[in-house]
Structure formats: C-alpha cells, structure tokens
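Progress report, Aim 2. The chain analyzed during this reporting quarter is listed below.
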Amino acid sequence: TGMVGSALIRKLIEKGYTNIISNYHLRKPEEYPQGKVLFFKLDLTRQDETERFFFEHKPEYVFLSAAKVGGILANSTYKAEFIYENLAIALHTIRASFTSGVKKLLNLGSSCIYPKHAPQPMKEEYLLTGSLEPTNEPYAISKIAAIKLVRYYNEQYGTNFISVMPTNLYGPNDNFNLETSHLLPALIRKFHLAKLLESRDYDSIRKDLKRHPIGFGLEQKFDLEDNSIIVSVLNELGISMDKDRVRVTIWGSGSVYREFLHVDDLADACIYLMEKIDAWDMCPLHPMHKEKSLKHFAGDLPDYFVNVGKGEDLLVKDLARLTKEIVGFKGDIYQDRSKPDGTPRKLLDITRMKKLGWEPKILLEEGIKKTYEWYLNN
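Predicted structure tokens for the chain:
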C-alpha cells in the first residue's frame, strides 16, 4: 500500500488483471475500484502471519514491494529498525513463497546496494565490490541479503525468483513526512510550504501541517492556531523568513548527483519482467536454463537482478531549482554544507534492461509536475 505497491496495483488494474491480493499493515486503502483488489491486514515482519497468509491464499505471482524506507535522516536515526524490519520482510516473504509453491516472485531492492565509490554508471556486476555508503548501510545490507536469498533458492531449488534494483523513486503516494521522506518529496513539500509563507497564507499552511505528518514530534509540540507559532514550526523545518524574503534550507552541498524514476515507470517495468522474463533468462547457471525455451536472454546475471532506472542524472542543486520553479516558490535556496551529502553519485547502468526490451517513458519535469498535482489534490 506504499508508493510502489499502489503503483503496481494501479498498473495491474489498467492492464486488465482482476485476481489481485494485497496486504496492508496499518490502514486499508480506499482508492481502488470496488472488488478489484482483496486486501488483508498482514505484518510481514511476523513469520507465523506471513506463512499463514501464503498457505491460506496461495498466491501464484508475488511482487515483494513492502519495505521500511526513508532518506538520510531516517536511515541514520533508525538504523536497527531499518536492518531488522527489511531483513524480516524479505526472509519471511521469500521463504513462504518457496514453501507455498509460488510460481514466480519479483523482489524489489534499491540502488543503494552498490558500493559508495562504485564506477559510474553502476552495472549489476558491481555488487559487493566495495564498502557501502555509511548513511544507509543497514538498509542496503538487508536488500543485498534479499538478493542473495533469491539467488540461492534459484540455485538450490530451481525456483523462478528474480530481483529488480530501481533508482530513486517518486510519484503518487510518496512519503511527504519531512523527518522520514526522501529528497524529492521533501523538496516538493518544503517549496510548497515556503510558497504559502511568501503569500502569508497561514490557513493553507495550517491545513497542510494538520493533513500530512510533519515529523520530529512537531505536531504535538506546538499550537498551530497561532500564526507566529506556525512561523516557528516552519523555521525548524528549514523554511525561514527574513523580513519579506523566504528561504528554504537543503541538506548538503547540492553538488552530488541523483537519478530519479517515476514510480509508474517502475510499475510498468516490473509487470513487463513478470510477464516476459524468467530466472533462467537471466543466468545460464539456473538449473532450468537448458530445459526452457528462452523468451529473452539477459546474459550472465548470476544474482538474478537487473537495474531499472532513467539512465541519466542531475545535480541535487539543479533538481532543487527545477522543483522550485514547478512549485512556484520565488524565494532563496540555502545549502547547509554541515549536513551530509550521501553517496557522490548513484547512476544506474540500464543497458541490460534495455536489451530485455524495456525503457522508461516519463520525463523528470513531467513527473514532478504530476507528483505536485497529486500532493495538492490529496
């Protein structure tokens, strides 16, 4: 029910699939047409619940998109939760998929699996060739473990499990909590709030702060009915006002590069892979490789995963300027160089994915505009 899962469900419905089962952890979603999706409350970090779910409902094809995710701040703050919860989700889901006889599983990872100083663009074979970026090492280790689990079930049992490593994602249902969000949704929300502050639209700011979680415990800390208190809250969020000029503070130098893929493109790629690419298409060492007539052959991918990205990146400070322009904020941007930048560059090599017959379609500017419109409407 997160950003990726909801995009997958939308795309499956769009393509005419009807027998869709999904789990939810906290709140059952309501945005899908009646009867199109069956939702079950399920905590994938609990092995007994996960196994019971798989043996009761017998899913045939599994997209593993559940994860605990966040930006640099969240990863640095909740290290134990990030490694434990993501390991538990992967272990329980992949194991239950095997024991219950799932026909095919697609495991979603992240580009943070690659070494901090990996050559650019990053190819699939660069996995485990160097040390990880410290700010998200717990999350990365859990995702690497899931990749290896997929590989070893394929090697030992001949399962049809594959993995996908997407680049940085954005789009509808993203997390806009400024304590735990990733870069792009944080920029969209900060510039939106700053734009409202420029026009002194305190009622709209108040509605925004009440409607979406802010993070940092600020919801309980302040009385948002007082406009001067709202200014204080925004200041703590990195949105400050000096006389008539509003300034947005962004972590780091802005001189690192990031690649972004719209979540609808990722969903399209995942369903393409589920429909057309099997594990034995990805590696000649798979036990079933010679017995199957290959639809496509991706070459030697011994860990059974493929990169899915845009194939191009941009400086964070250029992303900030673009987002500022799309949102319509007129003030200043300040780069707080005392804060970490994270990995210098994270550009994925998507050559293998292109050879398999899929390429991204949504341009970054178009995607940010759509995401901002979604935020305003939701």
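The mean pLDDT is 92. The radius of gyration is 21 Å. These observations will guide the mutagenesis work planned for the next reporting period.
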